[in-house]
Fold PCDBF protein.
Amino acid sequence: DDINDHSPVFPKERVTFKIPETSDPGSRFPLEMARDLDIGSNKIQAYSISPRNEYFNVFYGTRITGKKYLELVLEKPLDREEQAEMTFSVIAVDGGSPPRSGTTEIDVLVLDANDNAPICTQEEYIKQVLENTPEGSVVLTVLATDQDAGVNGDISYELGETVGESELAFVIDPRTGEIKLTKPLDFEAAQTHELSVRATDGGGLSAICKVVVEVVDVNDNAPELAVSSFSSPLPEDTVPGTVVALFSVRDRDSGANGKISCALDDQLFFSLRPAYKNYYELVTVSALDREHTARYVLSVTAADAGSPPLTATHTFTVDISDVNDNAPVFNQTSYTMYVRENNAPTVFVGAVSAADADVGLNAKVTYSLAPVAAAERPSCSCISVNSENGHVFVLRPLDYERLRQTEVTVSASDAGSPPLRANVTVRLVVLDENDNAPLVLYPAQDSSPAPTELVPVSAEAGYLVTKVVAVDADSGQNSWLSYHLLRATEPGLFTVAVQSGEVRLKRPLTDRDSVKHKLLVLVRDNGKPPLSATAALSALLLKDFSDVRLPHSSPPADEQDDSLTTYLIISLVCVSLLFLISAAVFVARKVCKSKELKAAHVLYGADNLQSGLADAAAAGTLPRAYCYEISLTTGSGNSEFQFLKPILPSLPPQHCATGQGPDGEQEEHFPCVPVSTEDMAPDNAGTVSARQFN
């Protein structure tokens, strides 16, 4: 159904009329009608003038032949002297809802004395032209006559404004009215061309006729083949009758030139089947075998019924895809791989490989570890296989002492649907490394004191004292152990068997040998590098085993050392405190003495001491005939006596010196005691200390 989607369009936006002033009212001037591409009620319904004037009106009518026409009607005589020119618009309105309109401008020039308009010999010219007519060919000639003479009778021709391809395809001779081609016509682009020709005389009067050019088709277009769907590759198990391709054919020519027939070259495995209208199906007619033929090249030819016929060929290349009918096959029935213990994580140990006779995805092999059945013992979770290349890795370090070998099942699966698979057993053998030091079983090497072995003093050389027992968790030569005496109280007294670990006396015991001996035995394996352990033991030499009293439990050596350290710290603290107290008392005493000496009266100085001593000697108070000079200083810590020479006879033991005290009474300062000459032996300087004197 048509909708009002086009507005009326006049061929020209501006039209000029030259009208003689002698024109009578009612004179009609033909106008080119506006063109509306819509149909039915949406076509042009009415014309009007804007702005309205008293001279002209527009008339829209139908001729006897049924053709519509448009005329400009003069309503009032013109007067060139009153108004020589006038301009207004003619509006064409269609019947759509809402209505659409088109406008053309009318320019009227008032002339004198030309009262006859040209008349075309035909209102409509129709001409058929082959689409292969060469450029420049004359299509037809338009002819118009005018009863006027002179300039008013000279007629010129021009084409009205056209739409689409017609505008550029034709040209008219303004003098002769010949219409020529400016380019070849194409039936497939436009089958008809409508032209409007205006014939105008020298006085400005004109007539319009219509020219219709019908293009006649020639067979100049080959058939065209358009593929709608195409399936390739096809599985080799495709059933007969399967649609491989759907395509359509068309020919832009008409009549017999547009009738098409299709043919297939090879119809042994494929054929063409009409579908509907101009569609065809390419279908299979027999079973396909990829091993016999992996690719089919099919040519479809489409030909029209023209003379000569034109053809088009399209090639379909159908690949036959493989179905998954072959399982992967390993290149070995089983695999054995080796890895040393304490390996690095994710270490590469080997690879498995399988091949598939199929092609494409059916031949793409992926590897994985096959799941273990619930009834079976789960395999080691330390093995991984690369799904792309089959490389086998050990994910974590292994311990030979815990796991010596393990087996896993590797599955090779193709990418078919459903996938096919094959399994193979992979045995992983762990190689031993010397990673375990010897373990001494006897004597036990724990926190308790080393065990003591009793040896009679009467034992001879070769006497079995004890045997060191050790084991090594490694295997092979890594577990071969040798025993060596590392340290002993008397190295020449004991010997250790290298292979058995037996500790024996190297010589007979003597009285000079110590009663208790300590031994340290080295146990070493045969690995590279070797690992070792030590065993500590003690030997006690006894004369009589019945008197043996061995402590069953004694504090450990570490605890004894801790107790001794504690006692030493306590003793050191006590001594330090005593020293500090003594020093404080001594200093306090010295300070007190110093204060007393400052306050006392010294009666015997250096000058009168000799006289006092002499008096004392005369009185018989000195035991010997010696004179002592006492030198006292208030700041000295010690008082010294200077030995001079004997000047007095021996005196009886009495008080040697007296003096006056602070209260005026006589008091003894130095008690006189019997002193021998040896006791008061002077030093090199002839001075006897006060300590000796006292």
About this structure: The chain is about 10% helix and 40% strand. Residues 549-559, 600-694 have pLDDT under 50 and may be disordered. The longest helix spans residues 557-599. The first strand starts at residue 14 and ends at 20.
